[in-house]
Amino acid sequence: MSSEKTTVKGACPQDCPDTCAFIYTVENGRLIDVKGDPEHPVTQGRLCTKLNDFAKHHYNPNRVLYPMKRVGPKGSGEFERISWAEALGEIKSRWTRIIDEFGSAAIMPCSYLGQEGVLNGLTVGDAFFNRLGSTVAEKTFCGVGRDVGAHLTIGGSTGVDPESLVHSRYIILWAVNTLSTGNHQWPFIAEAKRRGAKIVSIDPLRSKTAAQADWHIPIKPGTDAALALGMMNVIISEGLYDRDYVERYTAGFDELAARAAEYPVERVSSITGIPIEDILTLSREYATQTPAVIRLGVAIERSRNGGQAARAILCLPALVGAWRHVGGGYIGITMGAFALKWDAMCRPDWIKEGSRVFNLNNLGKVLLETSEPPIKSMMVYNINPVVQAPDQERIKKGLLREDLFLVVSELFITDTARYADILLPSTMQAEQTDLMFSWGHFYWTYNNKAIEAPGEAVPNSQLFRLLAETMGFDEPEWRRTDEEMIRDFIDWDSPLMEGITFEALKENGYMKAAVGDKDIRAPHAEGNFPTPSGKCEFKSSEAANGNFVPPPFRSGYEAFQDGGYIDPLPSYNAPFESQGSTPEIASKYPLNIISPKAHGFLNSQYANEMKQQKREGVPVLIMHPDDAQSRGIVNGDTVKVSNDRGAFVGSAVVSADTMKGVVASFLGHWSADSKSKSAVNSISSDRVANMGRAPTFNDNLVEVAKIDNDAIVALAANSRQPAPLEHA
Ligand SMILES: Nc1nc2c(c(=O)[nH]1)N[C@H]1C(S)=C(S)[C@@H](COP(=O)(O)OP(=O)(O)OC[C@H]3O[C@@H](n4cnc5c(=O)[nH]c(N)nc54)[C@H](O)[C@@H]3O)O[C@H]1N2
Ligand SMILES: Nc1nc2c(c(=O)[nH]1)N[C@H]1C(S)=C(S)[C@@H](COP(=O)(O)OP(=O)(O)OC[C@H]3O[C@@H](n4cnc5c(=O)[nH]c(N)nc54)[C@H](O)[C@@H]3O)O[C@H]1N2
Ligand SMILES: [Mo]
């Protein structure tokens, strides 16, 4: 064996807008370093805090390397090694019995975006479970609320190229913490700023990003639609809108103006908590500083009115004609640039007629409430629902069901994996092949396998090949190699793939979709919106006709409309709990909690690495000095955060960085590691928002109180999470 170092081109696997291009360094078959590719126009050679130790993450001694079966009580995390043949044999016999007795709908997958590849990511098990005839699991954890709102307004537009941001003169970072959650966009924003742009952040919290902005506008969570409608009212009544653009390229202006007129600044100020003067200044600056761009975060969708808030905000760029200019318009999701064949990936044609659909935001309910047939087995992969999904206590209770056969495929024994009956080992990114799209820029990135898989770990793609063979599926699809699958999943004839071949992707590592030159590209300078009318639809024709067709990049079977009615005009409804709840609940639980992403973790990943734990620190509860004082809480106090759904413990950070009445705790800490054996999602409700069945993580009320050690011990004993494992 030669001891020479070799480099291999790879791609970051994480669910993040940046999808960085990697260079793996391998020595003697061992991954010794992972760096950002310096040539990549977006990554520019830099990786984020989370991925800085990615090579070492592969060798974390707590990785799951072999199939295992449970030997202790449910949830104990006690496992014993078995062979793949035994694991698959057990799955086959349990599933066959369940299917015979209850039908295939008694089995359900549970998955999300732990890995983001075309091959091993969001859709990897869909074809298998559709073929099996399982209950269909609807996956609407992220982006669907915002993107349905966007879709109704500007269609499946790719939006502005983030590399064009340097040309912007006014940048609104709305419900997004760019410096933590997509920091490779920051250099473009910083360059725009150097060239004279003003950076505005609209956020209840003084986030890392808000702190770097020229102007931070705190807003009450879930009230953004009222702000956008108020801005439109000012812009229209003061004649600051682009009449020519509106006439040529928009639909429904008169009705929009009438709706916006219901939102005079005084009313908007009392709804949002933003001073009248600031609303006026923001509206006037936005309408006159050209080109202006809005970067809208996923956090916009996490309360009752999320989708409509996105819709209201999406009307602004057309109203002021921002789309006319390079660097003007909107940046949300860039998925429209990737010519994927979603039907080939998910096989919705294999879904059995009349199949039942359960939304994974309701996982606790699904596992605990009776249904016909009951869910008797669940298979978890690419997701850690005990930490990441709402209503944590009920999920744990459901996973403790003795009659539930739980199969988990994982990298680590997570809070969820601890409940497994059969635990299967998965490969990490350097050990597998994949092709990544991006939801924050326009580059495809190819991940070449760099090292052999440790132990008996397999990629998700191989896992489902093995399961298909085990269950006796004999379609030719199950015999394709990874490369053949990638080739089948892309529409190579699409104009977006011009100049891109499979071989070139593999060789170059990354290639930009054929969307046009970043320095001249203004996709909607002359309208051309991919909506039914070809215009920006202030009044949505699809909502008005009730015939909304879901965006193609979703699995094909997700529901997009809650309650069957969507207001065709952007509208504002008060959040469920923080302003819509009954007075009794509001007096019992007066504080609106938000739970944004942690800077040091990627959802719940890396929260098991000592180094990241040190960087991120303990779970915190940020609260305003007035709210702290009235409860006798000082900085550093250990506090209990609770409502009727659950409770967790945090360290109080008393600071005016949050608004009065709003508290914040970052997402991602594992409950097994926390003093209370619970985490922030213990208090989250499983209600979904008004569009796209988006979760409502930021639309919850809690009370906060000091807690002593004895009470913490009691709280932990009450939680259904067993004792912690040791972490490397
Ligand atoms: N470091 C890190 N990066 C990540 C992730 C991670 O876990 N950690 N996760 C990745 C994933 S899956 C996603 S979806 C993205 C998400 O990235 P973002 O969209 O940036 O999401 P968040 O961090 O949840 O929230 C962004 C900001 O919105 C604010 N906010 C909350 N509610 C409201 C509201 O109602 N209105 C307004 N105006 N602001 C509000 C929060 O205070 C927060 O500062 O990040 C990705 N990148
Ligand atoms: N309170 C609150 N909750 C939230 C959010 C919030 O802002 N606030 N954000 C929501 C959002 S935007 C999202 S996207 C979701 C994310 O929720 P998840 O997708 O559950 O997030 P991750 O923590 O990344 O968990 C994925 C799991 O997949 C595993 N994994 C990674 N790669 C592989 C692989 O190749 N194979 C297998 N089998 N497993 C793998 C990881 O080890 C990890 O345990 O969380 C949602 N939850
Ligand atoms: Mo997400």
Beta strand count: 27
Oligomer: single chain
General form: globular
**Poorly predicted sequence stretches spanning 5 or more consecutive residues:** 552-562, 723-728
Quote the distance from N terminus to C terminus: 30 Å
Determine the fraction of residues in helical runs and give it as a percent range.
Answer: 25-40%
Radius of gyration: 25 Å
How many domain modules? 3
CATH fold field value of the largest domain: Dimethylsulfoxide Reductase, domain 2
Q: What is the strand content?
A: 15-25%
CATH class of the largest domain: Alpha Beta
Largest sheet: 6 strands, mixed
Which hetero compounds are present in the coordinates? ligand MGD, molybdenum atom
CATH superfamily of the largest domain: Dimethylsulfoxide Reductase, domain 2
The total of helices stands at: 25
CATH architecture of the largest domain: 3-Layer(aba) Sandwich
Descriptive overview:
This protein has 728 residues and is of the alpha/beta class. It has three domains: 68-140 and 341-429 and 454-476, 3-Layer(aba) Sandwich (Rossmann fold), CATH 3.40.50.740; 144-335 and 522-545, Dimethylsulfoxide Reductase, domain 2, CATH 3.40.228; 583-718, Barwin-like endoglucanases (Beta Barrel). It is 28% helix and 17% strand. It is built from 25 helices and 27 strands. The strands form seven sheets. The protein has a six-stranded mixed β-sheet, with helices on one face. Strands 23-25-24-27-22-26 form a six-stranded mixed β-sheet. Strand 2 and strand 3 form a beta hairpin. Helix 4 (144-154) runs parallel beside helix 13 (306-319), helix 8 (224-237) packs antiparallel against helix 11 and helix 8 runs parallel beside helix 13 (306-319). One ligand MGD binds at residues 15-16, 50, 142, 174-177, 180-182, 202-205, 207, 219, 221-222, 224, 297-300, 302-303, 594, 596-599, 601-603, 668, 698. One ligand MGD is lined by residues 15-16, 50, 142, 174-177, 180-182, 202-205, 207, 219, 221-222, 224, 297-300, 302-303, 594, 596-599, 601-603, 668, 698.
